Amino acid sequence: MDKLDTFKKIGKLEKLIHEPSRLAILTALMGCQQADFQFLLNLVGMTKGNLSSHLSKLESGGLIVVEKTYLGKRPITYLSLTEHGRKSVSKHWQILDDLRKSI
């Protein structure tokens, strides 16, 4: 792969996914069917407000589904990747891997 091809691949990275906090969230969700908000909060080490903000952007972009429900009387929020989200994250990691290999 020549340098021009490398730069073309960089241009294919999706900005919504590539932001480090969102990439961490999405990568965590790739490893499971769904995760609850508290688990994800502990895993990625963000504040509640920061995590909520990123989740809203990912939900608006069609990458995740946010489901609010109750466990007994306790409210709980579940997060999962959409099919589009799963494919997009896989493609994103493939581009990054191709770039790494081309160096």
TrEMBL record:
UniProt xrefs under Gene3D superfamilies: Winged helix-like DNA-binding domain superfamily/Winged helix DNA-binding domain
CDD domains from the UniProt entry: HTH_ARSR
Superkingdom to which the source organism belongs: Bacteria
Matches recorded under InterPro entries: ArsR-like_HTH, WH-like_DNA-bd_sf, WH_DNA-bd_dom, WH_DNA-bd_sf
GO BP field: regulation of DNA-templated transcription
Cross-referenced Pfam families: HTH_34
UniProt domain Winged helix DNA-binding: residue ranges: 22-98
UniProt-recorded name of the protein: Transcriptional regulator
Organism: Agaribacter marinus
Higher taxonomy: Bacteria, Pseudomonadati, Pseudomonadota, Gammaproteobacteria, Alteromonadales
